[in-house]
Specification:
The chain is 61% helix and 9% strand. The protein is mainly alpha-helical. The longest helix is centred in the first third of the chain and has 30 residues.
């Protein structure tokens, strides 16, 4: 009986961890101010398309990643930015968001050009 209870506990813990990870994936850009770990490392951030400054909302963060959960569609989604003038994938179009250079990266590039 104790082996079965331990198995059920392990399944519950696994389910909770999966739920936490999924939540972080869906909300990571909106939770971390428009830039998750990878975007921060590369000097990028996500903003709303309408003004190009406002950070994305939680709803936009979820909609942005919906296209990644559609099987095979994420391959199409990776190619689409080459045909969009703003280089947006479908998830960004649906959410009304855009990925841009961060202010820090822009300032660094401006200093480089000035030198």
């Amino acid at each position: 009986m104790s082996g079965e209870a331990q198995g059920q506990t392990a399944l519950l813990v696994n389910g909770v961890l999966n739920l936490i990870c999924l939540t972080l994936i869906l909300f990571r850009d909106s939770l971390f101010g428009g830039a998750g770990i990878g975007k921060r490392a590369s000097g990028l951030k996500v903003v709303q398309t309408r003004d190009g400054v406002s950070p994305l909302t939680y709803g936009q963060g979820v909609v942005r990643w919906l296209s990644q959960f559609i099987p095979i569609f994420n391959l199409v989604d990776a190619i689409v930015p080459y045909s969009d003038p703003l280089l947006r994938r479908y998830g960004d179009r649906w959410a009304g968001t855009r990925v841009i250079d961060s202010d820090r990266k822009l300032e660094k590039d401006r200093r480089k050009i000035a030198e």
